[in-house]
Write a structure and sequence with these properties.
homodimer, alpha/beta, Arc Repressor Mutant, subunit A, Rossmann fold, 2 domains, 3-stranded antiparallel beta sheet, elongated
């Protein structure tokens, strides 16, 4: 399986398929079709067949896809057939929501620590964690080999913290600060910025 | 200006350009180039020129773009040259983070109410709001004409609440519940699901 040349736009759709398939499995469904999956995720059946066929032949003519098999394959492709440790930087409202959220484990992620530079927050309890001193973040990440971080610090601090994370060995940053980050090519960044999503919809109103 | 046939993928990039341009304006910059903007947002200069040219001629040969003018035009195109009222449904951790967040106003949005169906939460104070009874949500939205909602309820409730919102006249839903929603064609949905973003990055690790 040569996946090196798959366009990122296709990779971006796979987690959406996986989420829908996991929901169907939770509902007790055993098989599905590209048509049915497409209706659930709002993507055409033809697009889904094309996306999935990039990785091999997963469906049987006439019987559709085995949901369990397709889940296994998508988890393998996306490398979430394992659990990834994740650190959170920023113990504000968003950091708290992440610390309290119970839904990561089923999707392949495990929050292991939450850091803040505010001495008043360090030592506080948050969602089962004790907030740790951001001054110790780089050493902690180096020592534990964590490769994924969620960044929930203010815009003014985001780039400096990202630089530190990368120095510590982080390769993937989920950035909640509404600002673009400059990172080396080997580091992946995804953004969560509700205003951006809202603006994408107001265009159509 | 005929914008009806602009692909949604282009519309999705405009808020990212706008965010970067607003940051450049905050830093006191007056003009930029597609090259410079591209480096800030991680998109090629050619793609930016192509995207922006869909809406007319905004740059001058040799002098680049006026940042202020481009901001004005993008805000006009995205219809955030006005302030949109938004309701929040779900007064949990994410609802609280949204209620406390001060960054919406500058981007075109104003949270006007937060609802929850949990009687223990109704009446509580949250980020300057008093949590309102979800049982009164449909009437409130109908009376005020709000067209945008953020949905921060559990997966099990998301579809039913979305159905109510649409019944009340909501046309755009920012869905924080990690589940796809079935909505009529005239309603827009965007998702915020950190696990989906994380899975998009683990593929590359």
């Amino acid at each position: 399986m040569n996946t090196r040349k798959i366009p990122d736009i296709i990779i971006g759709r796979l987690p959406v398929y996986l989420r829908a398939l996991q929901r169907m499995a939770d509902m007790g469904l055993k098989t599905t079709s590209s048509q049915e999956l497409g209706e659930r995720v709002g993507i055409s059946a033809a697009q889904i067949r094309k996306d999935i066929s990039q990785f091999g032949e997963f469906g049987k003519q006439g019987t559709g896809y085995s949901i369990e098999y397709l889940i296994d394959k998508l988890r393998e492709i996306l490398k979430v057939d394992r659990i990834w440790d994740v650190v959170v930087v920023g113990a504000g409202d968003v950091g708290r929501a992440i610390a309290n959220y119970q839904g990561f484990r089923d999707r392949g992620f495990h929050v292991v620590a939450i850091f803040d530079s505010d001495k008043a927050k360090v030592g506080q309890s948050m969602g089962g964690f004790t907030v740790e001193d951001a001054g110790e973040m780089v050493e902690r990440i180096k020592a534990t080999g964590v490769r994924i971080a969620m960044l929930t610090v203010p815009v003014s601090a985001a780039q400096a913290v990202a630089d530190q994370l990368i120095l510590a060995g982080v390769k993937a940053i989920l950035n909640y600060a509404p600002v673009n980050l400059n990172v080396p090519n080997h580091v992946k960044v995804q953004h969560i910025d509700p205003s951006t999503h809202l603006q994408r919809m107001t265009y159509y109103l």
